[in-house]
Amino acid sequence: MVQRIAVIPGDGIGIEVTAAARTVLDAVTAGHGIELAYDEFDWSCRRYARDGAMMPADGIEQLRAYDAILLGAVGWPGVPDHVSLWGLLIPIRRAFRQYVNLRPARVFAGVPGPLRAEPGSVDLVVIRENVEGEYSEIGGRLNRGFPDEVAVQESIFTRAGVSRIADYAFELARGRRAYLTSATKSNGIVHTLPFWDEVVASRAERFPDVRWDSEHIDALAAKLVLEPGRFDVIVASNLFGDILSDLAAAVAGSIGIAPSANLDPTRTYPSMFEPVHGSAPDIAGRGVANPVGAVWSAALLLEHLGHPAAAARIVTAIEATLANPASRTRDLHGTADTATVVDALVAAL
Ligand code: ATP
Ligand code: MG
Questions:
Q1: Are residues 163 and 74 in the same domain?
Q2: Which of 202, 225, 335, 340 is the most buried (most CB within 10 A)?
C-alpha cells in the first residue's frame, strides 16, 4: 500500500533540512516494503510575498487526503508571526484535530548539553495538549489605557479533551518505561487544574500497569534541570507543555536535533511532523543547518504510519552519526555541513 506524504519545506533552512529528511527516508524505506509517495507544496513566506497568502484558500482541503504531512519551518524576517503561524501552522493543527503535540528529548553521545548528563541517561517525551487549555481566544480588555484597565483571558479545559490527552500519554508510557508525570498547579489555580488532576486520576484507573504522579509545574521545571533522567513521559496542558517541551529540548542539547509531531491519534486526519527549530535566517542557504531534527521528525512520521522498525533504524543512525565528531554540525561544535551529516546517516543505515 502506497502512503502519501504532503511535504511543506517552508522557508529558510526548512527547505534544506526537509530535503535531507527525504534522502534519509528514501534510504530507510528502499527494499523494506515501505512505499511512500511525496507531493511538495511551496507554501511559505515566499508565497505570501508573491500571492498575499501562506497557502491557497483550499489548502486544508488539498492536504486532507494525505496520510501525513512533513513540514520544514515557516517564518521569515519581515513577515509577522501572526501571518506565518495563523496563515498555515495553526489552521492545519486545528482543522486536523492534532490534539497531541509530542516531543521526545534524549541526551546523545557527542551533543554538548548544558547539564553534563551522561549519554543515554535522559530519554523522555513531553506530551503537550495542543488544542485547548490556556490558549483560548475568550477574554478581552476593558478601559484600554486608563488606570483601571483590566485584561481577562479564560482557559478552557474539557473532560473529553483532558481524558484523551491523558489516555494518549498513559498508552505511550505503557510502551516505554511505564512511568507518567502529570504537570499541574492545582495549589494556585483553583478551577481548571484541580479538574485536570481529577480527570487524569480517573483515566489512570485504566492503566494499572503504569506508575504515575502529579507534580506542580514549578517543582517539575526544577527537577527537569536537576534530575532529568528520572522522567519517562510527561503530560501537560497547552501552556505548561509549551514551556516544558522547550526546556526538555534545551536540557538535551541543541535545538537543531529536537523533533516534534502534531498528532491526530484517531487517524481521521493527517498528522504533521516538523523539527522544533525555525527557519534560522542567519544560516539559511549556506548548507550548514543541522538536519537531525528534521530527520528524527521523519522517524516519528514512519512510526505513526506503522513502521516502527524503520523509525528505530533512523534513531540508531542518528546516534551513530552524532557520536562521530566528523559528522557534527556547527551548533554541536563541529565543522560538518548538512550534506556530510546526510551522507553519514545514510551510511549508518
Ligand atoms: P521561530 O521564530 O520559528 O521559533 P527562531 O527564530 O526563534 O524560530 P530558529 O530559527 O530556530 O529560532 O533559530 C534560533 C537559532 O538557532 C539561530 O541562531 C539558528 O541559526 C540556530 N538553529 C536553529 N536551527 C538550527 C539547525 N537545524 N542547525 C543549526 N543551527 C540552528
Ligand atoms: Mg524566528
A1: no
A2: 340
